[in-house]
Amino acid sequence: MEPVVDPTMENAKTPLAQRFRGFLPVIVDVETGGFNAHTDALLEIAAVTLKMDDDGLLQRDETFDYHIDPFEGANIEQSALDFTGIDLESPDRPAVPEMMVLPELFKSIRRSVKEHGCTRAVMVAHNAHFDLGFVNAAANRCDIKRNPFHPFSCFDTATLSGLAFGQTVLAKTCQVAGIEFSNSQAHSAAYDAEKTADLFCLIVNRWQQLGGWPLPLD
């Protein structure tokens, strides 16, 4: 039987564009100086783009990773630094201002959106509204008008993990899912983003293999 095709996506350039209604999932992780996106510093950000193979299975593509200088007047809780292990004074920390990071990152994401024939990016993250809030707040501080991410829609792998594996903590979910996870490397934005990407791909791919996508005609 032929799969159901959304008529609005008939001219989509790629199967990946068809899979998520024109959205390109981009996995993001941020490390911060606290929980308040408007007052607390954004210290690290990583984003992972995806691609789809000939069998319609998702896999990681590129990883973009940045260390960020706290914006002027930013609040930084010592408890947050203790949790993430970030040393702001380390000479090995190649941090740059938000104003330099976000335009470069957003340009790379928009390029991937275009390559896959999508209309815009949708953020995928573990407890996604936390990450989306920090990214949107930073974009507003930098007065960036072309934010590639949908302003409020996102895919939350904590929710998906609760459904698929009965777990909501990233490390525990990866363990149950058979994804290698190192607690010593966790709370690095790049590491967590790549593990979250592996988890998202696993869940979406498993759903396809179980017959959940493409949707069959009745």
Description:
The protein has 218 residues and is α/β, with parallel strands linked by helices. It contains 7 helices and 6 strands. The chain has helices spanning 15-19, 78-84, 98-115, 128-141, 157-165, 170-177, 189-209, and strands spanning 23-32, 42-52, 58-68, 95-96, 120-125, 149-156. It has a 6-stranded mixed beta sheet, sandwiched between helices. A hairpin with a 5-residue loop joins strand 2 (42-52) and strand 3 (58-68). The chain starts with 14 loop residues before the first helix and ends in a 9-residue tail after the last helix. The relative contact order is 0.19.
Briefly characterize the structure.
The protein is built from 7 helices and 6 strands, in the order H-E-E-E-H-E-H-E-H-E-H-H-H. The protein is of the alpha/beta class.
